[in-house]
Amino acid sequence: MLVNCLGIMAAVPALPATAPRAAAAPPQPAAPPAAAARATPIPTGMPAAPPAVPTTKPAPIQLTTPPVTVAVAAAGTPAPGYRIQVRNAGPTPVETTVRQELPTGARATAVTGGGRANRPIGSATASEVTWRLRLPARSTTTLNTALTGAAQGRPVTAPTCAYGTDGTRPYDCATATWTAPTVPAAKVTAAPAWRRPPVLLAALAALLVVTGGVLWWAWRRRRSGPAPAATGTTPGPNRLAAGVPPVAGGVGGPADRGTVYPRPAMPATAGRRRRPPVWLVAGVAAAVLAGVVGAAAWTATQRVAAMDTTKQPTSGAWVGNSVTGPLGVPLRESAFEFTVYRLTCGAGTQPAAPAGGRQCLATVGVRNLTPGEQTWHGQLQRAYLPGGNWVATDESATRVANLGRDVFAQPVAAGSRVLLPLVFTVHGADPPKQLELRSGVFSAGVRVDVP
User: Fold this and answer.
1) What is the pLDDT of residues 184-219, one digit of tens each?
2) Which of 54, 56, 271, 365 is deepest in the core (most CB within 10 A)?
């Protein structure tokens, strides 16, 4: 009863409101049949659709065409060299600062276009070459550098970026790796079979075995001596042994024959068993040991040569393998391709940095290699200090460096590439030694060594 009463009380106020409204409504003139047919809606029994609600998903970030573009190519010279092309495709002149990072131990020997080689204050890299250019409208400027002091025979990578007037926001970056020109190898004739080490070792082992066998056989033959003469019974006196027939009635006759007694055979004296000499045993043992050691060394060498040292260990919790490389080298992980072009730290405490800390700015290129949009997070991007501690991206400072844009709130469009400055706030005087970048929580990520 209580439920029924509540239902009636809820329905009663609605009844009078509809009746007067229907009674007070003035009569409408009858519409023409055709107009009435057009104006009368068809009852569907479904409620009207709600108004469209604007989506709150942020649009993916894409790298627009910058006013200044950079292209770097390695020169085919015996020493590391690069050709840098800086292009202004806009209708107005542009002022820019071009910076080329040099690897550890390298120094510039030739710089064109008014550039200067120096070591920036607070920079985590070894040195750099800097140009301050004013590019005319729709023009291309070519710069050249030559380096020395790099490791002989190793590839040398020197990334280059063009920055705006503030020196922190990059217009464009490019990289190139110089490799030593290939020299045709001299034709080497194969050594004769008798001069090859494996053949010589096999022949020496065979010679030792044959020599040991011959010496062993000669020693056994010399120790055994001649065979003892066989002894047995004698048929009679000497004349019988000489073959003289017996003579009847006389000497040598039947009366003189006597009795023939058998002579017992003398047993042969058993010779003492001799042992082989020590030098023979030592020589054979040395030959066998050398063969065993040689076979073991050859087997171990073949197994080590068959090992694949390029594989990186990974666990089931990570997606892909972790990749490590230097500045300027594109490193690929599960979804992104990261390229760190530059890392520099402030000389002291900046106003935006907390007390006792300083900001390190990394210029990072991110390319989405997947067919869909990808979102990444600032807390997964880390800078490792020499002591083993690490700090994540300072998202507020990174937003300031990107002119107020939150780069982690927007996904990266499929197949696109973005160039962003990331800021890390560190404590202490030592700059980071390594950067760790990844697209997702379960991605193995990449590690970039900072000289």
Assistant:
1) 555 556 666 666 677 777 777 777 777 777 777 777
2) 365
> What domains, with CATH codes, occur in the chain?
68-178 (2.60.40.1510), 323-449 (2.60.40.1240)
Place of tokens 């068959």: 306
Distances (CA, A) of 405 to 120, 375, 409, 410, 416: 28, 15, 9, 9, 18
pLDDT digits (tens, 9 = 90+) for 216-257: 777 777 777 655 554 544 444 454 444 545 555 444 555 555
Q: Is the pLDDT of residue 383 over 80?
A: yes
**Whole-number Cα distances in Å, 1 to 7, 8, 15:** 10, 11, 21
Residues with Cβ within 8 Å of 265's Cβ and at least 6 positions away in sequence, in order, are 230, 231, 232
8 A C-beta contact, residue 429 and residue 416: no
Percent of the chain at pLDDT above 70?
A: 62
For strands 446-449 and 323-325, give the pairing: parallel
